[in-house]
C-alpha cells in the first residue's frame, strides 16, 4: 500500500498509527494505559516521598501563540526559510507576466514569520509549547487534567506514535498552531468537530492530527507559490489568511471524504485536494464561513464557544 503523500511525516514503525483501523486501535485501551501510567507514577512518587498533584495548564489560544512568536527572537529560524520559489529564465518571465501579484512590502515580515514558525521544533522546556499540546489533547478528548508528555495516548487523537514532535517535520510549530486555530476559533470549531468525528469513524477513520499536519504542509506550499498574495494584499494580513486557507483545505477534504466514502486506503486523494485548493483559493478561504453559517442556520445556535470539542466526539 502506497502512503507516499505522508512520506515526509512518517517514521519506520512496525505498525504506524495511521494504518490501525478501529479493530486494531483500541481507544478505550489507550485511555486505560494512560490511567495506569499515571497511577504507577503516583505510587512511585508516594514511596519516594514526592508530593504530587494533578495539573491542568490553562487553555492557550492561537492568538496568544502567534503573539508569543511575534515577540520572540526568531533570527535562528528566519535564516533558513525559503518563503518564495526561485524562478529563472523563461519561468521567471512567465511568472512576472501572468503570475500572482507580489506581496506588499509591509507584509513580507509577517509572511517570513509564518515560515519561521514552521521551522521551529517542539521544545519541552518552553512552557507555551507544552500549553499548545496539552490544549489540543484536552479539547479533543474532553479530559480536564494534563496528560503525560510521551505515551500511546497521543495516537488516540491521530498522532503517529508516542511523541507528537516526530510528526512535525516540515511544519514545525505551525502544524500545532493550525490545530489550535481549527479547534478553538468560533469560525471553524464546528467544522473541526465534524472532521474529528469522521476521523473516529469505524470505516472512514483517519489520523486526525497527522492529516491536519498535511493540510498545513499544503498551505505552506500554496503560500510559497505566492497563490495567497492577492488575498493577503486585500486584507493586509498574512497569518489569518493562511489559517483560513488551511481550515478550508481541511474542510474540503472532509466534505469529499464523507461524500465519496473515502477510507485510509485512498492515499492518492490528498494529491487531488492539493490540485483543487490551488485552483480555488478564494472559494477555499470562504468555505469555513459558509459552513459555519449553514450549521448555525440548521441548529439555530450561534457558535461562539471556545473549542467546540471539549466533550469529545459524539
Summary?
With 314 residues, this protein is mostly helical. 55% of the residues lie in helices and 0% in strands.
Notable characteristics:
single chain; 314 residues; mainly alpha; 0% strand; disordered N terminus
First-residue to last-residue Cα separation: 31 Å
- The helix/strand series, from N terminus to C terminus, equals HHHHHHHHHHHHHH
Structural class: mainly alpha
| Average pLDDT figure | 82
Share of residues in helices: 55-70%
Plain-language structure description:
The chain is built from 14 helices and no strands. It has helices spanning 27-48, 62-71, 75-78, 89-98, 108-117, 127-141, 153-156, 172-184, 189-199, 208-224, 229-235, 239-259, 269-279, 281-299. The chain has 314 residues and is an all-alpha fold. Helices cover 55% and strands 0% of the residues. Residues 1-24, 44-53 and 305-314 have low confidence and may be disordered.
